[in-house]
């Protein structure tokens, strides 16, 4: 019975989404968005993300052109908006799921190689969530909605905030919403605050978040530190409880531990929770303007490091080699899966193994036609 109800709900959402996309602006589109909000319980979107991304008066200059197509597909899917055929192909490639969500996901994780356009994509999503979604039905009188973005450092958060300011100012409509700017936030005339700052679980209590975005979460402090990623998420999640806002984390991989790795391990691919979307892509899959020659040079210098940085591969777990401990005074780390010989495993053989594991995915990515660059 429950399965039939869910199927009927999904079917209804698909029909309403199709109507919304077909009309774009006007009374019919507004009515469709109101129906989506009523069915899903999501805050009311004043404009769909696709419409905003295609309108030069809104976000049309934020992530334009074919080189941003993969990012647009992922962001649209995270909002539950219908995908076109080419976008669906990229969605399947990056998520290993056949069908995209029909409603906004609760959690969205992106494991993306370095220089993959993460900061600009995050800023675009932050701007949309702060300016084109009506949260009044989720708030008490006088409650201030916060679109929160946390980065590992103040310098990195400053980069995101600069992108957000640029996107707002490029839009003749959205620029009018800027009421006040500080070093960490932008206050808008719709009473929404965009707060972008360094991650610290001690500074996250007391606010009401309508969305929380984590930039480079794999590089937050480890659980051996006094400011681990798990503590930060635990501090943020209650602030999303009353609004039901999305939790979004976009990062390059760092190690097989922590929030990003656990989400990838549990929810990447068809086995994952439908309300939790996990995508994984190489730097060039998300940013085809990055040259193949550059990435190949980085892989040749250090295959294991390059695989994590540019191929978005989580580094295998390291352990101390007993053979190396016996033969050298300074221990050397090797991969658990590294091949052994009479002389014991070596770091060189381990890194070669990592490179072999990732080369087939990399070759597939580099075979694709390179679109005009706008990243």
Please, could you describe this protein's structure?
The protein has 375 residues and is an alpha/beta fold. It has three domains: 1-41, no CATH class; 48-281, Rossmann fold; 292-367, no CATH class. It is 44% helix and 15% strand. The protein has helices at 2-23, 27-40, 49-54, 69-78, 85-95, 118-131, 154-170, 229-241, 259-267, 283-286, 292-301, 303-310, 322-327, 347-367; strands spanning 44-45, 107-112, 133-134, 145-151, 178-181, 185-188, 193-198, 208-215, 247-251, 276-281, 318-320, 333-335. The strands form three sheets. Strands 5-6-7-4-8-9-2-10 form an eight-stranded mixed sheet, with helices on both faces. Strands 1-3 form a two-stranded antiparallel sheet. A hairpin with a 3-residue loop joins strand 5 (178-181) and strand 6 (185-188). Helix 6 packs across helix 7 (154-170).
**Which strand order spans the largest sheet, edge to edge or round the barrel?**
5-6-7-4-8-9-2-10
**CATH H-level superfamily title of the largest domain:** P-loop containing nucleotide triphosphate hydrolases
Radius of gyration: 22 Å
What's the rounded overall pLDDT mean?
80
What distinguishing features does this structure have?
3 domains; 375 residues; alpha/beta; Rossmann fold; globular; two-stranded antiparallel sheet; 12 strands
Summary of the model, kept short:
It contains 14 helices and 12 strands. With 375 residues, it is of the alpha/beta class.
Task: Please outline the helices and strands.
Blueprint: H1 2-23, H2 27-40, E1 44-45, H3 49-54, H4 69-78, H5 85-95, E2 107-112, H6 118-131, E3 133-134, E4 145-151, H7 154-170, E5 178-181, E6 185-188, E7 193-198, E8 208-215, H8 229-241, E9 247-251, H9 259-267, E10 276-281, H10 283-286, H11 292-301, H12 303-310, E11 318-320, H13 322-327, E12 333-335, H14 347-367
Helix pairs in contact: 1-2, 4-5, 6-7, 11-12
């Amino acid at each position: 019975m429950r399965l039939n109800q869910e199927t009927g709900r999904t079917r209804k959402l698909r029909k309403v989404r199709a109507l919304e996309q077909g009309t774009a602006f006007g009374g019919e589109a507004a009515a469709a968005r109101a129906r989506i909000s009523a069915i899903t319980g999501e805050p009311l979107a004043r404009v769909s993300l696709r419409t905003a991304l295609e309108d030069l008066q809104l976000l049309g200059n934020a992530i334009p052109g074919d080189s941003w197509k993969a990012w647009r597909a992922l962001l649209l899917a995270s909002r539950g908006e219908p995908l076109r055929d080419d976008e669906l192909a990229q969605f399947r490639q990056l998520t290993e799921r056949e069908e995209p969500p029909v409603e906004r996901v609760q959690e969205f994780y992106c494991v993306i190689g370095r220089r993959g356009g993460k900061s600009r994509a995050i800023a675009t999503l932050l701007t949309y969530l702060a300016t084109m979604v009506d949260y009044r039905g989720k708030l008490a009188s006088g409650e201030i909605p916060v679109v929160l973005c946390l980065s590992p450092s103040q310098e990195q958060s400053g980069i995101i905030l600069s992108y957000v300011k640029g996107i707002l100012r490029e839009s003749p409509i959205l620029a009018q919403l800027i009421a006040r700017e500080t070093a960490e936030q932008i206050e808008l005339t719709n009473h929404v605050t965009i707060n972008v700052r360094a991650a610290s679980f001690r500074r996250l209590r007391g606010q009401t978040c309508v969305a929380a975005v984590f930039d480079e979460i794999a590089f937050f402090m480890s659980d051996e530190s006094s400011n681990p990623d798990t503590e930060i998420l635990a501090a943020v999640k209650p602030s999303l409880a009353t609004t039901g806002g999305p939790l979004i984390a976009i990062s390059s991989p760092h190690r097989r531990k922590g929030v990003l790795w656990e989400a990838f391990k549990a929810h990447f691919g068809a086995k994952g929770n439908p309300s939790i979307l996990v995508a994984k892509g190489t730097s060039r899959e998300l940013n085809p303007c990055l040259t193949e020659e550059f990435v190949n040079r980085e892989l040749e210098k250090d295959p294991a490091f390059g695989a994590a940085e540019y191929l978005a591969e989580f580094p295998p777990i390291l352990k101390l080699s007993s053979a190396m401990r016996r033969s050298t005074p300074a221990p050397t780390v090797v991969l658990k899966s590294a091949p052994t010989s009479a002389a014991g495993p070596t770091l060189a053989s381990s890194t070669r193994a990592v490179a072999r594991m990732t080369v087939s995915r990399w070759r597939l990515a580099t075979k694709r036609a390179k679109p005009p660059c706008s990243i």
